[in-house]
Amino acid sequence: MQGKDLLQLAEKFGSPLYVYDAEKIQSQYTRLTKAFSKVDNLRINYAMKALSNIAILQLLKEMGSGLDTVSIQEVLLGLHAGYAPEKIFFTPNGVSLEEIEEVSEMGVQINIDNLSILEQFGAKHPNVPVCIRINPHVMAGGNANISVGHIDSKFGISVHQLPHLVRIVENTKMNIVGIHMHTGSDILDIEVFLYAAEILFDAAKNFKNLEFLDFGSGFKVPYRKDDIETNIEELGKKLSKRFNAFCAEYGKELTLIFEPGKFLVSEAGFFLAKVNVVKQTTSTVFAGVDSGFNHLIRPMLYGSQHYIENISNPKGKERFYSVVGYICETDTFATNRRISEIKEGDILSFRNAGAYCFSMSSNYNSRYKPAEVLWWKGEGHLIRAHEKFEDLLQNQIPLPVEAVV
């Protein structure tokens, strides 16, 4: 997409606005499948928590993707988008046995990540195919909040608890068909990933009826110019060779599964915001936009850096700006960032806004959530409308008249 395309979309649909480039999503999906083309049985389950708009789900479904879900609501959205139950994985954390049972009855593949629920579910439903999430105790990820495979993480069953896990499986006669791990997001060093994979291979030897191994995801994408990213091609070459060798040792052709979210949609996303005010203080020039952490919380929550471009004046002289929002708390998107000279009314474009951006938005300060547009085949298609005042009231119930008189 070009800056002029984004400007036209901002004029047509208003701001703030999320825009997703379908071609980029498709190319990322193809890149990943090509990297692992040496594996006979490869399956990609899109981690829909990154971006759950049903139009995006439909786009990936047409490419052959399955879904990785973390809530029963995501499962229902996936089914609504046309996915067959067997193409959906359910990998929750800390949910009730009742929710897992309800999802299981839909025909969705469940993935259990704690011994308590595993034993309870196995005792009641020994014939239902189950995947087990292992915590490999490998510290990986770009931020503590997205590193989920270390020893202090709440996710997964500790690899050191394998004897207990195996005993539960033997006692309940459970049908274990898969082993899963996810170490964290923004993994750069593929050797760390390969090290964790060896732990998963060792764990898999304890189960004789496996059908697949799920290696999670967490591949790093570039967030700024000249940024580094996970070398998917090198990882594909090395892990494919090791996976095929393990299958030969195991005596059975298994399916290799990944569950990418950010890798598929992050770079496809643009967040457009209009500059309301340019405010000069004694030490800083602020560019205040018509948005805040109610729409894009990642810079404040994770310290993530989104490249910001003034698409209204892309070739202007660069100055230093702190880009801030309109929320009644500090909501700084960028501090002392070099951006082409900004005037009130200009449109700023935030890159890498496809993953964990709209999906983490809120109505804080009673602000409306923005619209979403899919740039597909050279046109902008509205896939979610801007919220209105009626949307804020939809589920609210006022006091009876007599109570307020």
Automatic annotation (TrEMBL):
Gene3D superfamilies: Alanine racemase, Lyase, Ornithine Decarboxylase, Chain A, domain 1
Modification N6-(pyridoxal phosphate)lysine, positions: 49
First-tier enzyme category under EC: lyase
Active-site residues (renumbered): 328
Reactions that this protein is recorded to catalyse: meso-2,6-diaminopimelate + H(+) = L-lysine + CO2
Keywords associated with the record: Amino-acid biosynthesis, Decarboxylase, Lyase, Lysine biosynthesis, Pyridoxal phosphate
Orn/DAP/Arg decarboxylase 2 N-terminal domain: residues covered: 24-266
UniProt: substrate binding residues: 298, 302, 329, 356
Any one Gene Ontology BP term: lysine biosynthetic process via diaminopimelate
Top-rank lineage group of the source organism: Bacteria
Summary of subunit composition and partner proteins: Homodimer.
Family: Belongs to the Orn/Lys/Arg decarboxylase class-II family. LysA subfamily.
Name this protein carries in UniProt: Diaminopimelate decarboxylase
Species the sequence originates in: Flavobacterium restrictum
